[in-house]
Amino acid sequence: MIHVKRLSTGSLFRRTICLLITSFSFSFAAPVSAGVKFKHSDTLWLTAGTGIRMQVDSRKSDFDNNNEFSFDSIRFYFEAQVHKYLKFYVNTDKQNHQKTFMMDAIARFEFNPSINVWIGRTLVPSDRIDKNGPFYSLNWNQYTQPLFPSGYGASAGTLGRSEGGVFWGTTGRVHYALGIFDGLKGQSNQDNHLLYSARISYSFLDIESNPVYYSSSSYFGEQGDLLTLAFAFQQQSGGSGSSIEQGDFFGYTFDVLSETILDDGGVFTVEAEYKKFHSDFYTSPTPPAAGSADCSCLFDGHSRFAPVAYLIPKVIGWGPFQPYFRYVENNPSDARTSDSVEIGTNYVISGNNAKLNFNLYQR
What we know:
- The structure is a single chain.
- The chain has helices spanning about 10-20, 130; strands spanning about 1-5, 25-30, 35-40, 45-60, 65-85, 85-95, 100-110, 115-125, 160-170, 175-180, 195-205, 225-240, 245-260, 265-280, 300-310, 320-330, 340-350, 355-360.
- It is mainly beta and about 375 residues long.
- The chain has one domain: Beta Barrel (Porin), CATH 2.40.160.
- The radius of gyration is 21 Å and the shape is globular.
């Protein structure tokens, strides 16, 4: 991952060529359904696995020259089935310079593809980038637009998780997930209002095959021609503000994923999203600072992004290259519009399970 200051078009191009040769980000992941499996019977087994995401970060500008190696995320997961309809799932995460913490702890009642209930600490239904997680995204810097409250690691949740329950399933071309969660606790939510969330997607072409209600931003052509449109929302009374001045939160998104297999075997991928947040602002003269323990100061406004990628059909060494371009625009109600661009390529070794990423990130 490479960060640079805003430069002229000519100097930016020259810097890109130089840095992409010498700097890279590496991502390795093990999917939920993989790992080492200890099986006693078809309905009694245990699976263990891991996911690792690491990077070399090179920053070059007039103000910052730094090279750093870091582990973005190291995860260990354990999945067990104890009954025909009952499974358990535990997932831990350790990020750079932080302690290991419990990310997921779920009792999973799975009856058939259409009717399933998860209870515990789990992923809140939301937009595709939140459901991808860091291991199944198309690009490296996917979290460059405002996240839903549970994505900030504060009182509203961590890494898109919260305590609650999700009713989810697939019926035909429709995939749905409906959730009720604690969401924000304390601060502006003095009356303990719950967070309500939902995501509904429709597949116009081939149907995405994912574990539960998770997703990916690229399947590298492995799931055929895709065109999936989705709508998601989250709402919580008292979900924005402080104990002194309470406000409500409501956010919704539309996202689409298109993946087309070309005649030469290449794969053309387009993803896009529009996000709108309604978050009450402070009117007092000295509101708490954003990110402080006293404030759930959320983004108010709209945001959009669109990445485009092409998987080159030729295998070089372990796998093919997938160059991409991603543009993000954030439009807050109380500040100036900002944007960012990422240009890079994935070197796909084993789908989303193992890939190298080289990129230039500009904002």
